[in-house]
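Format notes (please read before filing issues)

Several people have asked whether sequences and structure tokens are stored in separate files. They are not. Every record keeps both together, in the order shown below: the sequence lines, then the token lines. Line labels are part of the format and must not be stripped during preprocessing.
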Amino acid sequence: MRNTRYGEAMNESIGLMAGSGKLPFYFCQAARQRGKRVLAVAFRGETSPALARQVDELVWVRVGQLGKLLKQFKKWGVKRAYMQGKVQHRRLYSVQPDLEAVILIAKLPERSGRAIMAAAAGELEKMGVTLGDCRDYLEDCLVAKGVLAGKAPDPGLKKDIELARKTALLLSKNHLGQTVAVKNGAVVALEAMEGTDELIKRAARLSGKGLTVLKAAGKGHDFRFDVPTVGLSTFKLLAKYKVACLALEAGRTFIIDREESLARAAKAGIRVVAF
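Then the structure lines:
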């Protein structure tokens, strides 16, 4: 019997490249509830050691040990694998890659994190391993269109959301960050390599309270590598810096710890809307 949505046989083993945060845990729970064996490669300094209790097998590698990762998936006979959780992109410039990674990176005309991940996915495909969409199994984390917390945006916030959306689209075309901060019709900050939480801090330092923060996947986003995600730590920062509105792309963005996160937003008077 096959799972037609994911192209897998029931009770089949699937591979997991597990980064930091809660997404690997959510993924493992959902996959195992659907009868999957989860075989994980974990990254030292990124993945929580507690993940070992949630998977059927786990092997540790360093970021940059592409050869060891490929050999492990081959040993397990994995035919489908997923990336879940964050590996800090800035670490890609400080690790010591193994020979396989050095050869791979040397061939790349562009050495962004996305280009490196795409090349690694190509190496997996050569071995017969398909890299799946990060949204598989995690439909419950996706946001649906509408107002998620607080009141509907007023006309001023709607204009800021639209400006942030257009700006985020420009970022996505150039494979840059996923988050934009806007206030009173002006773009305050754009996400680069630092991540969403650091962008919020920087934008708040520049413009104070009342920001609109938008996070989106954008056109042409490759969901094999990640899904734009916000969680409790982000909502704590939104409240701390008195952000007015958080806008998310419906069906293409995750909220982790949804109930607690949205309750915190509502209590802080933050409007959360999915467009």
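For reference, the curators noted about this record: The chain has eight helices and 15 strands. The domain at 2-131 is CATH 3.40.50.20 (Rossmann fold).
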